[in-house]
Amino acid sequence: MRVPGPVWFLVLSGTAYLETARGVTALAAGDAVWVDARTAFVVDGDAELALGDLRAVVAAGPVPSPLVVRGFADRHPGVAELVRSCPLDGACRGSVFAEGYGTLIGAAMTDSFNDQGAPDEDGDPLVARVLDAVLADPAQKWSVESLAGLVHLSRSALSARFQKAVGRSPVRMLREVRMGEARRLLSEPGLPVEAVAVRCGYGSIAAFSRAFAADHGLSPQAWRTAVLQEGRRTANPIPLSSAQTAPSTRVAATP
C-alpha cells in the first residue's frame, strides 16, 4: 500500500525493515519512525504497523528524516496504548481528533529525539550491505564468518557494528530474517513445510521446526493451520490506517 508523507508508524509486533536511500534499518516491536514528505521509503518484513498521517502537524524543530526512535512504546506508554486501543471510528472519528492525535505523536517524537540526541546521519553502510545480502538470499548457508567476509571485517568487529546500528547480533538478525521468510512461505498453503525449511536456510525440517517453535510457541504446521483458519488479521490502531507487512504487503511512499 502507498501512504502520503509525512507519515508516522509504530511497530506493534514483529520485525520491520525501513529502506531509504541511506540504507536499511531494522525495527523491532515498540520502535517508531517519522518520515517527511520528501523521503522515498519502503517498509518490508513481517511486522504489524500502526500508521498515522501527520500532514497537519508542523515539527517543533528540525529533525532528520527518517527519524527512528528506539523503544518509543516504553518511552511514551500512554501514546502507545492510545495508538493500540483507539481506531478512527466512533468516538475516535473526526479531523479535530486526528489533528490533536498527530500533534501528540509529533511532540512525543520530538521529545524522544531531543533525549536520545542526533543519530548518525550516515548510518552504517557495512551493516546495511550485510542486511541487503541476507534479505536477498535467506537460504544461503550464512555464518558470522561469511557475513563478516562480505564487508572484510572480523567477527567481533561485525558484531559490534550490528549491536550499535540495530541493537542485535548478526546471528539474531539472520534468524529474524529467516523467521520472517518462513512466515511468508507458510502462508502459502500449497508449499510443503520441508520446502519452507530449505528456502529459509535450514538443513533439516527438525532444525527448522525447533527454531520456529522457539520463536513462535508453535510448530510450523500448527502455525500455518492457525493462520489459515483465522484468515488475514487486520490491525485496528490509529488514524488514518494500519498495515501488516506480512505476508505480502509493502508500505511505501515516494516524494
UniProtKB/TrEMBL annotation:
One of its GO terms (molecular function) is DNA-binding transcription factor activity. Keywords: DNA-binding, Transcription, Transcription regulation. Gene3D superfamilies: Homeodomain-like. Residues 235-255 are annotated as: Disordered. Residues 128-226 form the HTH araC/xylS-type domain. Residues 239-248 have a biased composition (Polar residues). This is AraC-like DNA-binding protein.
